[in-house]
């Protein structure tokens, strides 16, 4: 629609503005084409490696999806950009680690925790998820509830909270990355791919379950029905007698719970790290900007795109430019925003 | 509110007093408090410029500031980064500003189609991407940063003659302030403000909304680049940590303290922030947890006063004046700030 208005009213201005757009599009398409060609050649020369990297990217996408789905759920319903979402992720890992440390009584001279049993993995997981979910609800009720509709103010409030959480995390947890211990073997043998990290597969499985679960909740339950209606018109929903505040609180609970879950899984697969808050806030932002804010399908597509780009660029980029892999994320963002300003599955507010 | 006829004399007095401060202040104060405030003030001015005239809260400004700083470090002679150029400092600074503006225009062209909270998210994403790029690309950022960036000869040494770089920052600050005030009255500046108020109507009037917004974002990038260059001249080093998410948030905090809608608030906010950052440490309760204390202060400001410290001053004086002149409507500044913070 925007370009239509440009071409009819813009006149000379429109022509002038289109030239750089066209050059930019050609440049971005060239990058896209080259990347696909490069991946194709590499895939043909070493199919096993290709399968491994692809699966790696998909498991990464799973983690990204769990984080971003909570972010997009909260945004879609309440228009709250939760800038503390990355902090929730980081805190999820930290709480699980601290609980597990208590349960396992590690040897003080060793840096790593001993292998966990099912109980000593599940209990920290549940404790951490529930604490984060509760924290989310408290933040929503205390700080955000009475600022409804003031999008920027709510974003600023969550930014302030994220600073406090980050600083307190450094104070009480320290700067060293730590790994959450898991009750499964490190890796298992898969057809074609070969040896592959077990927890990574678990993570992908959990992500699929989360995705299917959320879809079912949204499409089949009364809560989901209200959420869908609320995304379209909050005022109408509350005028119809629905207690929208309770729905908001529930959505925040669920969104924060998912961030906590992702934090624990991420801490088990990689590590719990104090700089994760910024990293996963960026990941959530990029995914929902690319996928469209508030769209669950968009979050899944965005997560897969980002996961695969991360994974392929780590391995397939030539040595000279491998450090510049993050530029591909930049190009992805520019490309999607240029073509669809509201994201692939997004709609104008 | 201060009567309009007193604006210029008061401004002139403030600048003269500021220029004379190095005579009475210690070298440490001049360098660590005053110069740092001016540099952060210019960076915050680039944010407030976009917020007040465009209704945009950009979180990419620190990223752009970092691009300029790293560009200077790579182009001029320094320890770390690309070493093949070793350009003259002035040429390096000029090129760094050009590079930053070009990158600002690229970000601007896609970000300018969004508004409100979307704009904030998009610019934050770009800001963090810039930071990640410099963290990973050690060819550009050195291992652990670029150090010993040489200063232009006229400035002498930042340690021995801190007043020189201070004066340069003061002059640039004044120019940025006057430039933004002037810009707001040009036809282009008016069109930009018109777009903030009603983009659809401006489009219907035949203005190229995207082009105007993109160029305005480029101007914001230019101001951020000035601050970035001054920062590496003053600090003589830059590392990826300089443009981490924390500085991004603290720059936003400076702008919020300053009030988001008055350009002079940038320097007021920066001075308050720098003093807090320096003094909080000596409070026993705070100690090492300066960031926590700053976060709580930030939270309180956002919760209690949408207009920041300048907003508090203004609402106090307008309340005081209202009791004098009962017919006077409340200052429109308050309304603008509330609208910006409400994201309307």
Structure write-up:
- The complex is a heterodimer of chains A (349) and B (344).
- Chain A is an all-alpha fold.
- Chain A has one domain: ABC transporter involved in vitamin B12 uptake, BtuC (Orthogonal Bundle).
- Chain A has helices at residues 2-9, 12-45, 47-78, 85-104, 118-144, 151-173, 198-220, 222-232, 234-239, 244-269, 276-291, 296-316, 326-339, and strands at residues 187-190, 194-197.
- Chain B has one domain.
- Chain B is 72% helix and 0% strand.
- In chain B, α1 packs antiparallel against α7, α3 runs parallel beside α5 (116-136) and α11 (245-258) crosses α12.
- Chain B is globular and about 55 Å long.
- The two termini of chain B are 25 Å apart.
- Classes of the chains: A mainly alpha (349), B mainly alpha (344).
- At the A-B interface, α1, α2, α6, α11 and α13 of A face α4, α5, α11, α13 and α15 of B.
| Domains of chain B (count) | 1
Strand tally of chain A is: 2
Give the N-to-C terminal Cα separation of chain B: 25 Å
| Strand residue percentage of chain A | under 5%
Shape of chain A: globular
Tags for this model:
heterodimer, A: 349 residues, mainly alpha, ABC transporter involved in vitamin B12 uptake, BtuC, two-stranded antiparallel sheet, 75% helix, globular, disordered N terminus, B: 344 residues
Write a brief caption for the model.
Chain A is built from 13 helices and two strands.
Question: In terms of topology, how is this protein built?
Answer:
The complex is a heterodimer of chains A (349) and B (344).
Chain A: H1 2-9, H2 12-45, H3 47-78, H4 85-104, H5 118-144, H6 151-173, E1 187-190, E2 194-197, H7 198-220, H8 222-232, H9 234-239, H10 244-269, H11 276-291, H12 296-316, H13 326-339
Helix pairs in contact in A: 2-3, 3-7, 3-10, 3-11, 3-12, 4-5, 4-6, 4-10, 4-11, 5-10, 7-8, 11-12
Chain B: H1 7-24, H2 27-54, H3 61-75, H4 89-111, H5 116-136, H6 138-141, H7 162-185, H8 187-197, H9 199-204, H10 209-235, H11 245-258, H12 265-279, H13 290-304, H14 308-324, H15 332-342
Helix pairs in contact in B: 1-7, 2-7, 2-10, 2-11, 2-12, 3-4, 3-5, 3-10, 4-10, 7-10, 8-10, 11-12, 11-14
